[in-house]
Known about the structure:
The structure holds two protein chains of two kinds. By secondary structure, chain A is mainly α. Chain A is built from 13 helices and two strands. Chain B has 13 helices and four strands. The relative contact order of chain B is 0.13. At the A-B interface, helix 7, helix 11 and helix 13 of A face helix 1, helix 6, helix 7, helix 11 and helix 12 of B.
Amino acid sequence: MAETSTAEARDVAGEVVGRTPWEITRARIRQDKVTLVAFGAAIFFILLALSAPLLTRFGVIDPYKANTDLVGGLGSMPIGPLGGVSGQHWMGVEPGTGRDLFARVISGLTVSLVVATLAVLLSVVLGTIIGIVSGSAGGRIDWFFSRLTDFFLSFPQTLMLVALSTIVIDILQAALGMERTPASMLFMILVMGLFGWPFFARIIRGQVLSLKEREFIEAARSLGAKQYRIYFKELLPHLWAPILVYTTLIMPQNIATEAALGFLGVGIQAPTPSFGSILNDSVHYATSDPAYFIFPGVTLFLVVLSFNLLGDGLRDALDPKADRQ
Amino acid sequence: MFYYVLRRLATVVVMLFLITATTFALFFASPIDPARYTCGKNCTPIILEGNRKALGYDQPAIVQYGKFIQGLFVGREFPDNAELRAQYPEQIVECPAPCLGYSPSQHRTINEMVSEAWPISLSIAIGAFILWMLIGVGGGVVAALNKGRWQDRGIVGAALIGFSLPTFFVGLVLLTFPAIKWGWLPIPSYVPFFEDPVNWALNLVLPWITLAFFFAASYVRLTRAYMIETMSEDYIRTARAKGVGKWQVIVRHGLRASLTPIVTAAGLDLGTLLGGAIITESVFSMHGLGYLAVHSVTNMDLPTIVALVLIVSAFIVLANMVVDIAYGFIDPRVKLAG
């Protein structure tokens, strides 16, 4: 019974205190130290990502400035241990150019988080709308959207992301007159977003199927509520728990996917910093300067881990059926 | 049962048809000229036109798609132009059914390329699959049986770390330290199994571990969740009460019921991986289907990409079907509607 909150214990002992689901959730999360730490870490990374453009603006860090004096010898390797770690360069410097790795990693964090967040938003909006419509409309509409979901899920995702990259980026560049970097960011957002919604739609549809049999929906309908009102005013407020949980769980997947595609050389490319582009460049120095891939790699791992832990914790806390023994 | 399989097969065919059509449309009906990609830096309008004709890009996309489908069933010949074939009979390349197409970047049929790459992807997938199923399911069962104790917490923690470590990072670390720096294992390169099974395995150990790392972690989580759910069912208590042995309860009653969702996931994951472990193959430069995919994308070899998408989707859709049919055998509660 280690995880039973004091509040829950009090309920049993004395008077019964009515609590909203939100209060129960908060009480549960407060008990869960791992989730709290993960939450703190995720907030820290988000703040770090937000501050990177400001720090660059005010000249505190500069992800593009070359420091030729910090690299030398054969192949311009960083001077000093661990890839040139020093008080000024916390993660050392890049081989070749001598650019500050810490500046590049936190600027890369900004790019990666922006791409991942926008892709998640796209998946969530599409998935929620399609899930609600499909679950509550039933019949042919449901059949159509369910088949569409199956269709999207049977595409080999990673392969499609890789396969589509060059051609979609070319089309975006040609159609919108964009530069290579914004076009590849837009590509990542669109494609990750478009492949992410089916998963979401399935979960939402399942929830809606059980919700729509409840009395309050029947009541709304008998009072003459329009479809729109039933979808977005009656159903949507009951869906925030799965939306929140799966947003938190898809977020780290998107961050990892961006990194993986960049690593393969088909996503965001150098010199724009992102986890993917930094790690892609570091492969060339993997043997001679392992610190160059270990620092960004470990940072990426910590970011993904913190979001995964947070998502797991939220799921446990928000699930009314979760086993709290 | 027979009708069920038949109906599923029909769905598979429709799915594959839709998937190839979509991919084809994306690549060959887009505003980007596909012939442009076949022609390198020293491109002249004459070469461009020649390539366009030879590869059949001058025809409407729908005709090209028809020829692609035709090639799959009866085979075809390249160059894809009767005039050119009459003019240069010595350059004709036969591509017997199931013809996947002709690669403009490697100047040979895609079937040849796939038949070279396929054993490598198969070797990587099978070894990793065995490894992750043993670790994943085993770890999940141990964690579930010791729920809340230190064994459980240790396994769940390790799984979460494994789940969050990016595959390419694990691969890079394994390639750099044990293989290159410390020399414990050979730097992976493919040795055919039938030539030298020992070296085959030694070369594949690192790719196997890399790939199994992530999957083992997700299977621990999956198995644990389902095992906990199953072990709290009434029939487990009944089995225990009537004196069934401890291990028999766990394996026969508990694990068997939890296997259905695990088999679903395993079938789909294996299906996807048979089509190439893109990241693992790229990290270790193993020239399997995944490596071929990345290579064709960087060279904009559109016909190869389309062929690979078809192969991988076929594996996924077929795996899906096999899993559904396997349900009937694993889980007696499932009845296949005819």
